[in-house]
Amino acid sequence: xxxxxxxxxxxxxxxxxxSQLSTExxxxxxxxxxxxxQRATLDALGTGGLQRVPVTGILAEQxxxxxxxxxxxxxTKSPMRVLDRKSEIKRRAAGKDYVSQxxxxxxxxxxxxxxxxxxxxPARLERYLALAYQAEVEPVLVLTKADLCDDPAKYLSDxxxxxxxxxxxxxxxxxxxxxxxxxxxxxxxxxVALVGSSGVGKSTLAIALTGADILTQDIREDDARGRHTTxxxxxxxxxxxxWLIDTPGMRALRLYDVAxxxxxxxxxxxxxxxxxxxxxxxxxxxxxxxxxTAIASGELDANRLNRWQKLQREDLKNxxxxxxxxxxxxxxxxxxxxxxxxxxxxxxxxx
Length: 351
Fold this sequence. Notes:
By secondary structure, the protein is α/β, with parallel strands linked by helices. The protein folds into 3 domains: 15-82, CATH 2.40.50.140; 88-246, P-loop containing nucleotide triphosphate hydrolases (Rossmann fold, 3-Layer(aba) Sandwich), CATH 3.40.50; 266-318, Ribonucleotide Reductase Protein R1, domain 1. The chain has 12 helices and 15 strands. Strand 6 (88-92) and strand 7 form a beta hairpin. The relative contact order is 0.11.
């Protein structure tokens, strides 16, 4: 990224962030937008160009990610604080602890990238949609490799049927038309994040939108996947003037605290559920279940109901705190031990 100067509005600054500054901060600090985070330092852009800032003190305590806005003291050149986020995309971090991992912050649109081949899986895409809705950002399904597919229209119709009500675009990421096809979401001051599995063409799409040197290897013939090299999150300026956050391909996307987002993805089922006879209807064998009636009539696919219920259970489990998890297992252990004790008593009665 060239060390050029930018206006704050071109970087995505707006009233939401301005309103967080006191009169003193307006006079004595400078806002910077984080474009990359390393282990000990971060890169950030402001009206004075690119700066490298150490991730120490308050930045280490607060946590910081690509897309964040931070304030730098004009005299000491040290970071003062991270501004509240307009939006944040997060998932459950790897490991046994139920903690979140930030993916990107302050984005306007989430490009959920899949491809017109076997990678297209509604169950996976619905996870990304839930992230977007929970963060209150607009999701756009971007289906790549349309040029390598015999019938890309099938994937568009499948998207409309399986995931109704969402913006869907099928593209050839190597085409010169990409910028035009996605221009609606990529204008000056707008921020887009790319998410999706490895090999779906995110890096190729990022190159087309930014012109940045994001390397990707040729597609493998045996599985139609590209071998891209993105290993960390970075923010690049798009040719159209907006900003793009590229993310590594995710082998597993474990949801974390996205209950409202899950319900938003499956709002058709939520609406049907309100017509059920019982408020706590599990949509299984209860009488007068509007959801099961819709499945019987062909209005609703039973697989869609199963995917919704699975995501609900997963999010509930992953959103538990460590304390809640230990308490739940303590109660289960106590219940199990009590059951074993009762069995011993019953067994003794026969001797």
